[in-house]
Design brief:
By secondary structure, the chain is α+β, with helices and mostly antiparallel strands. It folds into two domains: 41 residues, no CATH class; 110 residues. The chain contains eight helices and four strands, in the order αααααββαβααβ. A four-stranded mixed β-sheet has the order 1-2-3-4, covered by helices on one side. Helix 4 packs antiparallel against helix 5. It is elongated. The chain starts with a helix and ends with a strand.
Amino acid sequence: MVTKDGFLNLLPSLYRLDTFLNDLFTSIANVFNKTQNLIISVKNEFNFSTMVYRIPYYENLLKIIPTSNQTLDDRRAMIRARWIAKGHNSIQLLQNVLNSWINGETEIHFIDGKLKITFNSIYGIPTNFQAVLDTLDIIKPAHLAYLIIYKYLLIEDIHEVMTLEDLETLTLDKFAGIESL
């Protein structure tokens, strides 16, 4: 952040008390700060995790129809997933797409003709899990079935790994394992 004091410190001490120079450098600092904020804002629009104003543009470009209950983070994750999904289909591609959601950390293995997808985030599963499944159905080969395993917290996952503050925010249902088709 640019301030008038930064400019004034470059001048001899006699000039630092001049009201004209103080006003001039205040105006210049304001212009620099507005320009710097604009540059940061534009830069943020080209990052999937921080974009705000370009979300409708990318949704239109990628033919994504947002639902009314989706948050900005869910919409960003959907855009990132679709953007990454453009290309040859592979396990690494599927994993990268699923990892684009918050709490979407996954391990994917191809076992017995099925995709075994393990969600192993320590904080659970993605918030809009239905959107994750919809995207998975779009990008995976249609003939492949998949098995989803939800990994919840185990004692070895938290002992000397998480802080007491982290543990206080968790509920007991996070400590059970669930496996489903």
